[in-house]
Amino acid sequence: MSKILVTGGLGYIGSHTVVELDKAGYTPIIIDNLSNSSTKNIIGIEQIIQKKLKWYNIDCKKEDALNQVLLKEGNIHGAIHFAAYKSVEESIKYPKKYHDNNIGSLEVLLNCMRKNNIKNIIFSSSCTVYGNPESLPVDENTPFKKAESPYSETKQICENILKRDSCNSVILRYFNPIGCHNSGLIGDYSNNKPTNLVPIITETAIGKRDNVTIFGDNYNTPDGTCIRDYIHVVDLAQSHTKALNYLIKNKGKHVFNIGTGKGVSVKEIINAFIKANNIKINYSIGKKRSGDIEKIWANCNLANKKLNWKAKKSINQSMIDAWKWEQHKNNHVI
Ligand code: UD1
Fold first, then answer.
1. At 204, is the pLDDT very low, low, confident or very high (cuts 50, 70, 90)?
2. What is the mean pLDDT of residues 187-204?
């Protein structure tokens, strides 16, 4: 059973990936300092997989502490690096905090991997590296645009660090992850108030908010609202196990888009939620959000072909699961 280090393994995408790693026969070793996650996710993970996992509460910028874990565990086959801050808005307010944490943690992890002879890493990147694309869908060769935020800049810098490092790496560029495990037991426990569309819809459904404001309806899209590529987080998590299998057989540097290949508008998402859960949502049209990209969706042919991976879950399923999560988080009985 190959041991895989998962930094940020109690976060939204990390926790779902830990479940998939276990399912695929890997042994996840979790590192998480709870700075933007919760021990409730370890409870949820262990309930889902019906076994105990190793979890270390350390900051992966602390080289000595991380080194000690790697030494103690021994025989680790690779790392999946999720540990990073992820709020675009917060990164604009506190750019240094984002640079120090997101770039610092990758550098420390790579040092520790080198010392402990761990050669394989999967890195969480984001479609924000593409900025506002000139043609659609975007494939992996689409050049980076000037970063729109410090968050996005940290992803571009980390990708460049990985390109120069001697390790074998897979960079996964995520599109918009939504939903949760169908048990509703694990999900996003971020401290920050959500700014992403789907959590805002579910908070409106549960009554924490009165209304969803659609940020602009006069974009150059069929219904005037922005278009994104929304991917179920379980599909996204599965791409990591496939990427690991691939990296073990194919050394070197690899980059893959991880999305569905389909663009969906804000209005379509709101209507999908209403239909899937039979819940009425109030929404109104507001001003455009500054920095928003009009439309983006992925060309995922490379991941489909090389990783033998494809997103399978529907938007309808994502909406059902997203609603389960909102209820679970608020201690409602599902
Ligand atoms: C955001 C981040 C991106 C990150 C991604 C991860 C920004 C600018 N970008 O992408 O870096 O990788 O999340 O999930 O924050 N919308 C509304 N009303 C709302 C909230 C959102 O209309 O109250 C619209 C937005 O205008 C956008 C769509 O919903 O068109 C999706 O927004 P969001 O969920 O914030 O994701 P992104 O902006 O694509």
1. very high
2. 94
Whether ligand 1 lies within 6 angstroms of the CB of 228 is answered as: yes
User: For 71-95, what is the mean pLDDT?
Assistant: 95
How far apart are alpha carbons 86 and 283 in whole angstroms?
26
Size (the chain), residues? 334
Where does the pLDDT of residue 334 fall: very low under 50, low under 70, confident under 90, or very high at 90 and above?
very low
Q: Is the dihedral angle over the CA atoms 203, 206, 210, 213 positive or is it negative? A: positive
pTM of the entire predicted model = 0.97
CA of 139 to the centre of ligand 1 (A): 20
Atom from ligand 1 closest to the CA of residue 228: 39
Classify the phi-psi angles of 224: left when phi > 0, otherwise alpha if psi is within -120 to 50, otherwise beta. left
> Measured in angstroms, how far is the CA atom of residue 331 from the centroid of ligand 1?
26
Reported as half-sphere exposure (CB side, CA atoms, 13 A), residue 139 has a value of 5
> What would the mean pLDDT of 61-85 be, rounded to a whole number?
97
Give me the domains of the chain, ranges plus CATH numbers. Answer: 3-180+230-259+299-304 (3.40.50.720)
The span from the first CA to the last CA of the chain, in angstroms, equals 34
User: Is 98 an annotated catalytic residue?
Assistant: no
